[in-house]
Amino acid sequence: MITFKINAQEVNFDGDPQTPALWVIRDELKLTGTKFGCGIGQCGACSIHLNGQVIRSCVTPIESVAGQSITTIEGLAEDKQLTPVQQAWIKHDVPQCGYCQSGQIMAATDLLHKNPNPSDADIIQAMSNICRCGTYVRIKKAIHDAAEMMSKGAQS
């Protein structure tokens, strides 16, 4: 039995300990905001936070999260209040097809926790998630806007 927290709720998984966290999150826990993209940790569609740090869940065996805390896209907003990153994503109409966007938001949130005032170069370096629609310009604008909102005291 593997016990961990997901979005502040303790859960148990009784299955193959090598199962990627992505499939436990999607198939067992029915939190489908985390997406399958490449399956090799390259695209970032499966990005989640583990103890506050962004990771790729498709290459993370569930046994490695035992006793730890996961946050998925469903767990970012608190009391139904969108975070500045989520608000900026909407304001700048970032998604085109939208498939990669939960992973992009998780990566951007992690970036802003580490660097609350990133330059364009910082964003380009930190945002390794792939967007097939090419919304990178809007992503950068949204991250800068979220950073500004956060500096004015909004919830991160």
Automatic annotation (TrEMBL):
Q: Which InterPro entries does the entry link to? A: 2Fe-2S-bd, 2Fe-2S-bd_dom_sf, 2Fe-2S_ferredoxin-like_sf, 2Fe-2S_ferredoxin-type, 2Fe2S_fd_BS, Beta-grasp_dom_sf, Diverse_Oxidoreductases
Q: What is the lineage of its organism?
A: Bacteria, Pseudomonadati, Pseudomonadota, Gammaproteobacteria, Lysobacterales
Residues covered by the 2Fe-2S ferredoxin-type domain: 1-76
GO MF terms held by the record: 2 iron, 2 sulfur cluster binding; metal ion binding; oxidoreductase activity
Q: Is-annotated flag, keyword Hydrolase?
A: no
Q: What's the domain of life for this entry?
A: Bacteria
Where in the sequence is the signal peptide annotated?
none
Name the UniProt record assigns to this protein? Isoquinoline 1-oxidoreductase alpha subunit
> Record's Pfam families?
Fer2, Fer2_2
- Presence of keyword Oxidoreductase: yes
| Family matches, as CDD domains | fer2 (cd00207)
Query: What keywords are assigned to this protein?
Result: 2Fe-2S, Iron, Iron-sulfur, Metal-binding, Oxidoreductase
